[in-house]
Design brief:
Blueprint: E1 2-6, E2 9-13, E3 16-20, H1 23-41, E4 53-57, H2 62-74, E5 93-95, H3 100-113, E6 116-119, E7 136-138, H4 143-156, E8 161-167, H5 170-185, E9 189-196, H6 200-212, E10 217-220, H7 228-237, E11 242-245, H8 255-258, E12 262-266, H9 288-298, H10 305-315, H11 336-356, H12 373-379, E13 381-383, E14 389-391, E15 400-406, E16 418-426, E17 429-434, E18 462-466, E19 475-479, E20 484-485, E21 495-496, E22 501-503, E23 510-512, E24 514-516, H13 524-549, H14 554-558, H15 561-577, H16 587-620, H17 629-633, H18 636-658, E25 662-666, E26 673-679, H19 683-706, H20 717-740, H21 744-775, H22 782-785
Parallel strand pairs: 1-4, 1-5, 5-6, 6-7, 8-9, 8-10, 10-11, 11-12, 24-26
Antiparallel strand pairs: 2-3, 12-15, 13-14, 15-16, 16-17, 18-19, 20-21, 22-23, 25-26
Helix pairs in contact: 1-11, 2-3, 4-5, 6-7, 11-12, 13-15, 13-21, 15-16, 15-21, 16-18, 16-19, 18-19, 19-20, 20-21
GO molecular function: G protein-coupled receptor activity
Main location: membrane
Membrane topology: Multi-pass membrane protein
Length: 790
């Protein structure tokens, strides 16, 4: 004999107690009856034994559930609280209950008597503790799997901000916390956990908070046994929210609550057709509960006028005659867990009897050791009628299949159940299939997935910035810093680009950095400097040609034509050195650019200095018996040029030997650019070269300034003075400008200084002479130079 404790809906309204049979709960009884019928018809299972049953209603009251157990154990008649009498040997185990509220105290009570108990609904993990509850087993679905399924659905649909609504009991608190943890693992956040209690005011405050929440999704969890007033309150206050409803809430018949929601229910291997009527042998005409079931579910009269009138008065609704209607009973998923529990209990009994070696007879119950049955339940393995292999000790690890459906209510009040996906779970993994196009949303989303987010997603190019004292899903979006990108939405941190790459404008990808140098292709500065250098070289060439053509004229001779040619060629070399600064630098050009410019300019300034000194000596030597005449006989001018130029050559040689310049890629000076430049190697050597040229220019300026009072015809000191003044001014202003600029503009400053100072020498010293030679030939005569203008 099997004891069965079942739960029916209990509703309280206005102080009047009303019992409302629920079709799902009644199907628990039908599932038990079908299991008992199949067991007794199976000749290979418990031969010569007929399995019976007793069914009691616990009404979700722990005390009543315990009383029912004692009544079963005491037998017919008065209940014996201490279980001291009665023929209890025929009871092999109990199938109880759907609710944790009654299952937990039953497990504690039955364990003390050694009776095995199989729960078909309560799945709290605390019952899995074999130390505390060695006699308890469960065929119910694993709540953890359902939590994982819901969390994966939330993640798949891109929801990151949800509300959890659960009953206010201990089980609801544990389940809601476990569900929140699972949702958090999948990257979403829970705004808050609302609880439904027996206090209406508390429930109203909870539902008002859900109304004002920015979360569009409300996830239900736990196992609620609500009153009609509570369901009506929930329907009214959160009708605009989309609900995710688990298997444990499907016993609530509320189409308005289910409208536009997503429902999970277990896809079991029930072998009976869902649309078939209940077998006649299981539903006799005297089944009053069955009649009441149709009365409540389908508003069918019972032909008991007194009862019909009472119920119509209490419930305020009209009942109809359903005798001519064929009403399918399997309109919802039957409770296969009850069928599996009864079958498992029978197989355990069969295994125990087989192992005991006793023969089957009418007194077989004497040999049943109830305290041993749980050991056999752990080892029960059997194949169900639909072919599913069952290992009772590993039911929590059995594969689970959930169907996901939506129930839209159309304008014509037609209700249609639409499958939108399925979820499969097993030890080897899980899979979620969802057909987004078939989901019916309460709000108009333009065929897009309903959004439920605390903060909008940060697009590529931005990163998340967590708000202070806010959940991780509530954040602000900040633009990626310089040199960083984000190529995905909602990135926690931006990615730094490699050293030779830089973000694009949107900061969504790294691209090659722009290279910067004075390019011949697309740089206007290069074009300007090229034109200026070429024109200046042409001017120098023309002047060299003029001086060569008129090399025997008094003016050219009087200005020391050899030094003039050296000066012109050195100036030309200075202009040519500009091209070493243009284009993409290389190690060779880096080595040549500063040294060639420094040496050529030193030769030029040395020539100017030699010319000035020779002019001074020439006028000093005009006096009789002057010692300066001896200096005129020595090649003093050439010696000055050679010595001064050699010193610069020696400085440059030491520089190139110790620390020569080289080409480098500067990636730090300007963000987003690679400056291809020349590293001077030794900055000290570079400034020594400039300082030495400054020293020569200063000496030349001083000597020229002192020689400015000599006769005008032979004196070019004033032109030299002006050219050296221009040279010093250019280079003195160039140094701070050179230090304050970067990249190609630093090179441009140096090129400008070279061209300017070279042009100063060229035009200040040679332009007046060329003007006289070409346009004033009468002044290019010896008599004019000697002061005889007649």
């Amino acid at each position: 004999m099997e004891g069965h404790n079942s739960t029916f809906d209990e509703v309280t309204k206005r102080g009047m107690k009303r019992v409302s049979p629920n079709p799902n709960y009644y199907q628990d009884i039908i599932s038990l009856l079908l299991a008992i019928d199949d067991i007794n018809k199976n000749p290979d299972l418990l031969p010569n034994i007929t399995v019976g049953y007793q069914v009691y209603d616990s009404c979700m009251e722990p005390s009543l559930a315990i009383r029912n157990i004692l009544q079963i154990l005491s037998g017919p008649g008065e209940m014996v609280p201490n279980y001291s009498c009665g023929d209890y040997g025929k009871v092999i185990g109990f199938i109880a209950d759907r609710s944790l509220v009654t299952t937990l105290p039953l497990a504690q009570f039955l364990s003390s008597y050694g009776f095995s108990q199989i729960s078909y609904g309560a799945t709290d993990p605390v019952l899995n503790d074999r130390t505390l509850y060695p006699y308890h087993f469960s065929t119910g679905l694993n709540d953890d799997v359902q939590h994982i399924a819901i969390a994966e659905l939330v993640e798949r649909l891109g929801w990151t901000w949800v509300v959890i609504l659960a009953p206010g009991d201990d089980h609801g608190e544990r389940e809601s916390k476990n569900l929140r943890n699972e949702i958090n693992k999948h990257g979403a956040c829970v705004d808050f956990i609302g609880t439904l209690t027996e206090d209406t005011n508390t429930n109203i405050r909870t539902l008002e908070r859900i109304q004002t929440s920015t979360a569009e999704i409300v996830v239900l969890c736990g196992r609620l046994f609500p009153t009609e007033s509570l369901i009506s309150l929930v329907e009214t206050m959160i009708k605009d929210k989309t609900l995710v409803i688990p298997q444990t809430w499907l016993h609530i018949y509320s189409y308005l609550l289910f409208n536009g929601s997503l429902l999970f229910y277990n896809e079991n291997n029930w072998c009976y057709e869902r649309n078939e009527s209940i077998p006649y042998e299981l539903t006799v005409k005297e089944d009053i509960l069955f009649k009441d079931l149709f009365l409540f579910s389908y508003r069918c009269v019972t032909h008991d006028k007194e009862k019909d009138d009472l119920f119509q008065q209490v419930y305020g609704t009209v009942f109809y005659n359903c005798s001519s209607l064929k009403i399918p009973f399997w309109s919802h998923n039957p409770n296969y867990q009850v069928y599996r529990a009864a079958t498992g209990l029978a197989h355990a009994e069969h295994l125990m009897l087989s192992s005991s070696g006793k023969s089957y007879n009418k007194d077989i119950h004497k040999y049943i050791h109830r305290k041993q049955l749980h050991r056999y339940l752990r080892n029960v393995r059997f194949t169900e009628p639909c072919g599913t292999e069952i290992n009772f000790n590993e039911l929590n690890k059995s594969p689970v299949k959930y169907r996901i459906v939506t129930w839209p209510i159309y304008f014509n009040s037609k209700i249609k159940q639409i499958p939108v996906g399925e979820y499969l779970w097993s030890d080897s993994g899980s899979s979620l299939k969802i057909d987004i196009q078939n989901i019916f949303w309460k709000k108009n989303t333009n065929n897009q997935i309903l959004k439920s987010q605390c903060s909008p997603k940060c697009p590529p190019g931005y990163r998340k910035v967590t708000r202070e004292r806010a959940p991780p899903c509530c954040y602000d979006c900040a633009r990626c810093s310089e040199g960083e990108i984000s190529n995905l939405t909602d990135m926690e941190n931006c990615l730094k680009c490699p050293i030779y790459e830089w973000p694009n404008i949107k900061k969504t990808m790294c691209i090659e950095k722009e290279t910067e140098f004075l390019s011949y292709k697309d740089d206007s500065l290069t074009l300007v400097f090229t034109v200026l250098s070429v024109v200046s070289i042409l001017f120098v060439t023309v002047k060299i040609g003029i001086f060569i053509s008129f090399r025997d004229t008094p003016l050219v001779k009087a200005n020391n034509r050899n030094l003039s040619f050296i000066l012109l060629f050195s100036i030309k070399l200075s202009f040519l050195s500009v091209f070493l600064f243009l284009g993409c630098p290389s190690d060779i050009t880096c080595i040549l650019r500063q040294t060639s410019f420094g040496i050529s300019f030193s030769i030029a300034i040395s020539s100017v200095l030699a010319k000035t000194i020779m002019v001074c000596i020439a006028f000093k030597a005009t006096k009789p018996d002057s010692l300066w005449r001896n200096w005129l006989k020595v090649q003093l001018a050439h010696c000055i040029v050679v010595v001064c130029s050699f010193i610069q050559f020696l400085i440059s040689s030491i520089w190139l030997t110790i620390s020569p310049p080289f080409m480098e890629h500067n990636i730090l000076s300007e963000p987003g650019k690679i400056i291809i430049q020349c590293n001077e190697g030794s900055v000290i050597a570079f400034y020594i070269v400039l300082s030495y040229m400054g020293l020569l220019a200063s000496v030349s300026f001083i000597v020229a300034f002192l020689a400015r009072t000599l006769p005008d015809s032979f004196n070019e000191a004033k032109y030299i003075t002006f050219s050296m003044l221009l040279f010093c001014s250019v280079w003195i202003t160039m140094i701070p400008a050179y230090l304050s600029t970067k990249g190609k503009y630093m090179v441009a400053v140096e090129i400008f200084a070279i061209i300017s100072s070279s042009c100063g020498l060229l035009f200040c010293i040679f332009l007046p002479k060329c003007y006289i030679i070409i346009f004033k030939p009468n002044r290019n005569r010896k008599q004019y130079l000697l002061g005889n203008n007649k």
